[in-house]
């Protein structure tokens, strides 16, 4: 079934951070290197309150500013020291979790040499991690680990081979006769198929949930959503047809042929964050015979009139408390009243960012393919 979808907000305006005095009495001086730093690099740093501090070497520069958040809005102005290093601390604490950022030097855009890079905002951006109170659920632990492997699958519709990453759970190789359900998990605008593993730690979330006995193992497939050809603000012109063809007619058959899947709609889910949620909604409505589990993570909502009850086993809706949680709550209530199998989750204290989506995956995963 084809339906026009309202434009959803893909990016929230990042909080604007302005430089503050380095020795402000309100800031606890227990800064430590971010866990997303390059090996051996001391900066950027974060403290126990969630402040971030940056130090950039640019002795000939006249102005250095750090822009935080998807799209790089806002910024922290750095001050130049006699040693040629520019240093600055965010005006306030940042939300827990992962954030993109880049450095503006005299109007030019650069990445921080001290930080690792992650694909977001249609470019490789620097990344910083603000330790979260609940970070244990995506921590690297001494538990059995699954495998994330790159695959290249033929795509006649685009006249090339396309890339996807496939997570197979612990024990997959050791159980050659066992078949698994599959979640097709999509990234957001400006990101690519590396996002859910690198920024989202989807594989670690799965490993930990499986080790704790909270979910039955399943496969996750992550591919490029063909979104970066659409510039921000041009989503009304977005055509789902090319990606729908890649997903339904090319990727799914390849995965079913090359992995031990339970190749039917009742064992197949699709979910996505932000624009990946919009893609999920479009494809699940257009192809109700392909998936029976739907997940929109900061990616809009469904209405009862969108879906036939017999087509779906679970609708999962989520967002951050700093987004528009009332929309999720209202949509959930309407679906419940109409008798649909729906669940929702609001990530407290987060916005349109990966901590929201990490938590959402943790909450959604145990509901998928539940017996």
TrEMBL record:
Annotated InterPro entries: AB_hydrolase_fold, Esterase-like, Ig-like_fold, Ig_E-set, Mycobacterial_A85_antigen
Q: Where are the transmembrane segments?
A: none
**SUPFAM superfamilies (UniProt xref):** alpha/beta-Hydrolases, E set domains
Q: Which Pfam families match?
A: Esterase (PF00756)
Q: Which segment of the chain is annotated as a signal peptide?
A: 1-21
Keywords carried by this UniProt record: Signal
Q: Name one GO molecular function term.
A: acyltransferase activity, transferring groups other than amino-acyl groups
User: Which PANTHER family does the annotation name?
Assistant: DIACYLGLYCEROL ACYLTRANSFERASE_MYCOLYLTRANSFERASE AG85A, ENTEROCHELIN ESTERASE-RELATED
This protein is called Esterase
Q: Which organism is it from?
A: Maribacter aurantiacus
Recite the lineage of the species.
Bacteria, Pseudomonadati, Bacteroidota, Flavobacteriia, Flavobacteriales
